[in-house]
Amino acid sequence: MASVKWLARIEVVDFNFNGPQQQSYTFRQSSTSPRTEVTEISVRSLMVPPGIPTFLKRHRLVTVGTVEITGRAWAGSKAITKVEFSSDNGATWKDATIEKDSTLSKYAWTGWSVSWDAKEGDCVLRCRATDDAGNVQPEECEWNYGGYAVNPWQ
Question: What is the pTM of this model?
Fold first, then answer.
């Protein structure tokens, strides 16, 4: 769904096609529960982790002061209208600046950035996106047997 490659032929049919992709890409709670087809990508955002990693503790180190945070957001068939950034694990949010590139399709990954005033001490950074249908990236996503639509805040 995310990247079609080497498309050589398209065949148009006048009925709902039921091929292997339609049977395997489904939401369901167990291997025997009813299936709902996965038809769209859920809104999501990703952050480029700032600073220097400390591998043993899985922390990152940044210098106190202004840090430029960047990332990308995508919503499949919808445009990204908003990206927010949090430095306190989602307690408060700050709007990020969305890159407007008229040469890109609304379906492309959308770049975003925000300035963060890093203070001494531990913090948890998060980002979330909103698409043009009003769908907001959730804090948690519903578990499903196939592992699809895993798009919680990063």
Answer: 0.79
